[in-house]
């Protein structure tokens, strides 16, 4: 016979009636203090005393009781369209959970089930106070018109009809800022390795072209080429940057710098450059987007990259769900430049004749 308990008893938790008695207040007052109900008047001293007693007794609010009182559980429903297993977007979920926890909320997440409506209906059975849609990468999504009002906010994506509020990275400004950084470092011939079929890549390229134009420079079409020969880029596939780099090198038209659509593409550029005898940083500055830290800092030389504001996206979404912030249409957040050693400052005399 075992000398240990296989099913140890659950620790006793005081009821709200007992909390009220120990704090010397009514049940209504105790409930108001513990559930942050502004409609129930009490002094700050009373509120703090009730909370202190509750903490001492290990009290936890009842989800069922809150659902009966508010008509919803302290839950936020999340439809994840690739956000859970994305190496880029996992920080959105981390930021969301931390923000919700600070408001005594939590989330229940489902991966996209066939279509958006099916996923939302599945979440609605749990009576969440709100539902949000989180994408693993930036894009425009088509939300059926009859779904408007059932989804509070879109994160890392935009409504194709711009009806539902969204929280996204400022992809256009990100392209401008990274290009301006290279211009300020003395680069004049700046190229771009695109991600075919991805909205973010298209918008970033627009930002690159705008920054060059504003600086009185020209984006050479020969310096813009895709990371893959496929119509749509997918993470993990073998890149096809060797041929365009080889052609540019042979024609004496190699750019001073290349901006890559993401860090994995930059890794392909590094490999192609090594095969062609091109020195990254010294001959060709290489910068990128996404800042996958474990990848970027291990590259040789370590990669300069624009960090996505994913954690802030999640944090703001949490505040919107807690009704601390009003959802804004097209709420955009800036990238953060992480400088490493994959670029260099060019001397003015190197640009003579350009």
Can you characterise this structure?
The chain folds into three domains: 16-61, 434 Repressor (Amino-terminal Domain) (Orthogonal Bundle), CATH 1.10.260; 70-170 and 310-335, Rossmann fold, CATH 3.40.50; 171-307 and 338-351, Rossmann fold (3-Layer(aba) Sandwich). It is built from twelve helices and 14 strands. It has helices spanning 16-23, 27-34, 44-56, 63-70, 90-102, 116-124, 171-184, 199-214, 242-250, 263-276, 293-296, 310-321; strands at 73-81, 106-111, 128-135, 140-141, 153-155, 158-159, 166-169, 190-194, 224-226, 257-260, 285-290, 304-307, 331-333, 336-338. The strands form three sheets. A six-stranded parallel beta sheet has the order 2-1-3-5-7-13, with helices on both faces. Strand 8, helix 8 (199-214) and strand 9 form a beta-alpha-beta unit. Helix 2 crosses helix 3 (44-56), helix 5 runs parallel beside helix 12 (310-321) and helix 9 (242-250) packs across helix 10. The protein is elongated. Mean pLDDT is 88; it is low at 1-11.
